[in-house]
Every structure is written in structure tokens, then in C-alpha cells.
């Protein structure tokens, strides 16, 4: 059943577990996320970036989610706009049927970010739609980074408190050291858990971890064995995800892991049978592997069995 982001994340916030927010760009990814949720009895957030919306068409993105939400009425699902870049983009998504939106004005100074978020919250809450905002800039923490530099790019807990109070935003993504893509850390993976705990204490709302793909060994190996290359890539280790959830993270954005899993199977089939051109022969095993990765993630985040 299609519900607001708040309905899913308030429960996770109160019961202290994490819910995967999985990105999709086509029917294969989206249906696989639902299948894994059905298998694991887990609530889900499915999210589309502006790029994915452009690729699919907003009516198709919403239409597919609605059809699958009806097919699996027992699964609470929220449809979330990932990294909305403007007020207009958020309004468009709300009008089209999204039940949760992110307004990402985190590259602007604090006050501008706050004003833009406030505007989105006002219109979204009228429609029963939840809003996520981001504070700080996403980047890895390097060992040699100075305290000043760290303060400049990571979230400031006092600011987070003021931001949430003023904007009435539903969830906040505090920058604590993750980054997007497959290359998250130059040295050892490192996240600022103390900062996270302080943000949670001062805001007391669901928090979001962006750039939270783990690139587990099984996924990495499958990709390499199929002939892919993941030079120097590093994900967020499972222990870190669990530590982050203990510290107050409730929404865990996961995209890269799904892409790598899916494409490693597509490439394997392509290599093994050069005469093959039936799309289903590529997509069925790709979906199987992706479903396994998502199901395992639901166990790790603690959302399995929560419906
Ligand atoms: Zn993100």
C-alpha cells in the first residue's frame, strides 16, 4: 500500500531500525525491490532521482509504483523523490503522486537552505507528503583532514537542531562522511558517529544516510568475475551501517549495490552465450541476484519482519 514517507520512518525512528530506500530506473529494478520486500516482510521506500524521472517519464514512474503497491497491498511503500533540486521539481513530484520528497539545497548557505526547505514543507504537508532535507556536504572524511575542514563540510549538530525546528522538515540527511557512488573512501572507511548521535539527540526525527551502498564481497566478486572493473572502489561496511542505525539513522539510501549486482549478471550472460539476445535471459538472473542483495540488506538494516 502506498503510504507517506513519515508513516514508514516514524515507526523505524521509534523502534530504532533502518529502512532501505532503494533507487529504481526501470521496471526490473522496481519489481525486484517489491519481491524482496514481500519475501522479507519489510516496509520499503522506492526512490527516483530527477534523472530517473526524466528517463522513465514521471507518469510511468508513479504508475508502475501504484500498480505494484496494489499488487502487494500488505507492503507499506513510500515513493520518494531523491535529490529534488528545486521547489518546482518537488511540487511536480507531489502533483504526480510521490508521497515523499527530498529538497536538496545543501549546497546553498544555511539560511537559503532553510528558506527553500520551508517552502517545500508548507506545500508538501498540505498534501500529506513528507519532506527530507540535507545539511552539510557529502564527502569522505580523510585521515589528514583538519578539524576546521571537517566542520566546514560535515553537519553542525546545533545548526541541525535549529534547521529542524524552523523548517518542520520530517527527515534530515546529516553529512557524516559518506559519499555517492562506488568510490566512497580514499583510505579506511570512516564515519563521524559522535556527530550523528549528537544530531539525533538534538533533532529527535528520522535521519537519512546517503551514499550507503556497501559493495559487499559477493557483489564485488560477481562483477569482477563477469569481466567488470571496480578499481579502488569502497563501500560502507555492514558494521558501519548497523552502527549508524544505532546512532539514529532510519533511511538508508542504496543504489550502487543494486546496479552492480544487476549488471554483473547481465554481463555474465552476455559473455557466456554470445548468441543470446532474448532480454529475459539477461534480466531474470539479474533480478534474482539483485533480489538476494536487497533481501540480505533488509536483514542487516533490521526492517525484515517489520510488517
Ligand atoms: Zn544522495
TrEMBL record:
GO terms for biological process: fructose 1,6-bisphosphate metabolic process; glycolytic process. InterPro entries: Aldolase_TIM (IPR013785), Class_II_FBP_aldolase (IPR050246), FBA_II (IPR000771), Fruc_bis_ald_class-2 (IPR011289). CDD domains: TBP_aldolase_IIB (cd00947). Binds 2 Zn(2+) ions per subunit. One is catalytic and the other provides a structural contribution. Dihydroxyacetone phosphate binds at residues 181, 211-213, 253-256. Zn(2+) 2 binds at residues 104, 134. Keywords: Lyase, Metal-binding, Zinc. Pfam families: F_bP_aldolase. SUPFAM superfamilies: Aldolase. GO terms for molecular function: fructose-bisphosphate aldolase activity; zinc ion binding. This is Fructose-1,6-bisphosphate aldolase, class II. It comes from Helicobacter valdiviensis. The lineage of its organism: Bacteria, Pseudomonadati, Campylobacterota, Epsilonproteobacteria, Campylobacterales.
Amino acid at each position: 500500500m502506498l503510504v507517506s514517507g513519515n508513516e514508514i520512518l516514524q515507526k523505524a525512528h521509534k523502534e530504532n531500525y533502518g529502512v532501505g530506500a532503494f533507487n529504481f530506473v526501470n521496471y526490473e529494478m522496481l519489481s525486484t525491490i517489491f519481491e524482496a520486500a514481500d519475501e522479507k516482510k519489510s516496509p520499503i521506500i522506492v526512490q527516483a532521482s530527477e534523472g530517473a524521472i526524466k528517463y522513465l517519464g514521471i507518469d510511468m514512474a508513479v504508475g508502475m509504483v501504484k500498480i505494484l503497491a496494489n499488487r502487494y497491498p500488505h507492503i507499506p511503500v513510500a515513493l520518494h523523490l531523491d535529490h529534488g533540486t528545486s521547489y518546482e521539481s518537488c511540487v511536480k513530484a507531489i502533483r504526480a503522486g510521490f508521497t515523499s520528497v527530498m529538497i536538496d539545497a545543501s549546497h546553498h548557505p544555511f539560511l537559503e537552505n532553510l528558506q527553500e526547505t520551508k517552502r517545500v514543507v508548507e506545500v508538501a504537508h498540505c498534501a500529506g507528503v513528507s519532506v527530507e532535507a540535507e545539511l552539510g556536504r557529502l564527502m569522505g572524511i580523510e585521515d589528514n583532514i583538519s578539524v576546521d575542514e571537517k566542520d566546514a563540510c560535515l553537519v553542525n549538530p546545533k545548526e541541525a537542531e535549529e534547521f529542524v525546528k524552523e523548517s518542520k522538515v520530517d527527515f534530515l540527511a546529516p553529512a557524516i562522511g559518506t559519499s555517492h557512488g562506488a568510490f566512497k573512501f580514499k583510505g579506511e572507511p570512516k564515519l563521524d558517529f559522535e556527530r550523528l548521535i549528537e544530531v539525533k539527540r538534538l533533532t529527535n526525527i528520522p535521519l537519512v544516510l546517503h551514499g550507503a551502498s556497501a559493495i559487499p564481497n559477493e557483489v564485488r566478486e560477481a562483477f569482477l568475475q563477469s569481466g567488470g572493473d571496480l578499481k579502488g572502489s569502497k563501500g560502507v561496511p555492514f558494521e558501519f551501517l548497523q552502527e549508524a542505525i544505532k546512532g539514529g539513522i532510519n533511511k538508508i539510501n542504496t543504489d550502487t549495490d543494486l546496479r552492480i549486482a544487476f549488471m554483473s549478471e547481465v554481463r555474465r550472460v552476455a559473455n557466456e552465450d554470445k548468441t543470446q539476445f532474448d532480454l529475459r535471459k539477461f534480466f531474470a538472473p539479474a533480478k534474482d541476484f539483485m533480489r538476494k542483495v536487497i533481501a540480505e540488506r533488509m536483514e542487516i538494516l533490521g526492517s525484515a519482519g517489520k510488517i
